[in-house]
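Practice problem: Pimeloyl-ACP methyl ester carboxylesterase
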Amino acid sequence: MLKTKLIRRKLYCLPGTMCDERLWSDVERHLDPSTELIHIDIPMASSLRAMIDKIATVLPDEPVEMVGFSLGGYLASYFTAYNPERVSRLYVVSNSAQALPESELAQRKQALNWVSKRGYQGVPVKKAESMLGARSRRKRSLVQQIMSMADVLGEQAFVSQLSATMNRPCLIDELSASRVPIKAFIGMEDSLISMRQIRKLSQVENLNIYLTSDCGHMLPMEQPKWLASHLNKSS
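Answer key — structure tokens:
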């Protein structure tokens, strides 16, 4: 007789910009057998609010544990900030729940302008490498996976994800008011999150920050066992 896997806990996961469920594959291998990751695609939408509304329709009505990486971390934070009664615990990975810095906004506008004129050509090797920590860049499989996820999602997803989420309000005050228990995980070589942003994030009283070495922005791929060990602790 086949034994049925007993699922006692579900984690609803949102990926980052131009990432799919493969982002979590190594993390999943290290989770407790009774824990199930439920992948939620980043919705196609014309605005941040529309994305959140679509996410709301795919989540259960009862409070859930949410995990979000990068853009998904911001979306999960936004959902939690304005729907705290629907979130029992929030895990934010590689995101500060704050507005994008001017330098990042300029790069995104430039990228969208390029795509509108010449079409989407995927993630360049150098860009993929820049998302990883120094040690991880030597693992060509990680670089290739970043590029592959972006290739599968394509131009429509790229334009939607960048244009709809360009203007992000800072969520620090709202997350504090939510009283939802929050854990934030950040790689110490993440070039997209500054120490100033980390300090501001630490102002959320109901939030604990965990830093990991030898890790850039792609934390679920670079430090999957470390991240899973924290996700396994439900308190």
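Discussion: The chain has one domain: 9-232. Students who identified this feature from the tokens alone can consider the problem solved.
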